[in-house]
Amino acid sequence: xxxxxxxxxxxxxxxxxxxxxxxxxxxxxxxxxxxxxxxxxxxxxxxxxxxxxxxxxxxxxxxxxxxxxxxxxxxxxxxxxxxxxxxxxxxxxxxxxxxxxxxxxxxxxxxxxxxxxxxxxxxxxxxxxxxxxxxxxxxxxxxxxxxxxxxxxxxxxxxxxxxxxxxxxxxxxxxxxxxxxxxxxxxxxxxxxxxxxxxxxxxxxxxxxxxxxxxxxxxxxxxxxxxxxxxxxxxxxxxxxxxxxxxxxxxxxxxxxxxxxxxxxxxxxxxxxxxxxxxxxxxxxxxxxxxxxxxxxxxxxxxxxxxxxxxxxxxxxxxxxxxxxxxxxxxxxxxxxxxxxxxxxxxxxxxxxxxxxxxxxxxxxxxxxxxxxxxxxxxxxxxxxxxxxxxxxxxxxxxxxxxxxxxxxxxxxxxxxxxxxxxxxxxxxx
Length: 430
Prior knowledge:
- It is a single chain.
- With 430 residues, the chain is α+β, with helices and mostly antiparallel strands.
- The protein has helices spanning 38-42, 44-55, 75-82, 93-96, 106-109, 120-134, 139-155, 165-182, 186-201, 205-225, 231-237, 244-275, 277-285, 290-300, 333-337, 366-383, and strands spanning 26-27, 30-31, 33-34, 58-64, 67-72, 162-164, 306-310, 316-318, 321-323, 329-332, 388-389, 411-413, 420-421, 424-428.
- The strands form five sheets. It has a five-stranded mixed beta sheet.
- The radius of gyration is 22 Å and the shape is globular.
- It starts with 25 loop residues before the first strand and ends with a strand.
- Mean pLDDT is 86; it is low at 1-29 and 424-430.
């Protein structure tokens, strides 16, 4: 349902925060919640609960200084929006004209020729290409690739008795895995990683975007001349006929989500296993699997906490709140998964969360992401079964940012262990 803004005042229905329809950076009850602030990153679930109590299903937030948005924190409202691409398209082109060009959020959200930023025929064309290419990855081969990468990384610190898992294990593992999937040589992959990190952290975002674009085009050019059995080559060969620019943006998306999402997926699950006596004990004891831990993280601490951004074509009434045209509507997967209206205490085997999205924009790489994360975690726990969280310098902290739920570090300690044999993880090197 939609109605011109001029008719809003004549409505008898309540409007929870009317300024959403008028473009003010604050609502009638106070300022917008800054999702970019360190205070939000410290305890987002408390923030979601306070938003729900104050605003109901939709909360006025700020993605970056001076960039307002609406955060969807109700499961049912999120399902309604995600299943209505006609009224809630993902195309940001009108919105981005209103954002300052130096905003750190713009390079991450601006339009690009790929499915997650398009609607209609454009979306259909890009979606077919990326889905087919990602799902062509051989899961059996990927299992072996993860093992081959994981064991040398573990051997690099297993004799030390301590490690910082994000820097020494999770990030380099995920980085190499994504390079393998894309057929990308290390020198180009390093440039891609640097550019993506700058964009995600909002530090030198413009320079990061330029570096990323150059590196990706180098990869696309390389694969045109020497194709292989990889996602980049599959994108180039797909009947959708993507040109080099279109392929480079889809490769960029695989890098951004493949590295950042997978890194946080693994790290957040390891934190659960190591820090939660209830869960950690049963995982290490064998009563529950690492897959169960992964599912609980997707419910409670999903690596992509707030995204699936859409932009209403016109003012629209949702849950007694008018959403203005072309202002970002951000789905909070973390808040929606914990909506008291649908939340259950029985999570084992329950995969009804929104962490992968739903509808036409659901993630096409779910099986692949699960496999990589589970194998990475199992390799580590098998090699270092007595590993535990190192809190000697305090509890783990979280990176500020509106979208990802990301640890700054994950220090651990364990009994020093002899290196694993790279050919077979069950046998120690002499």
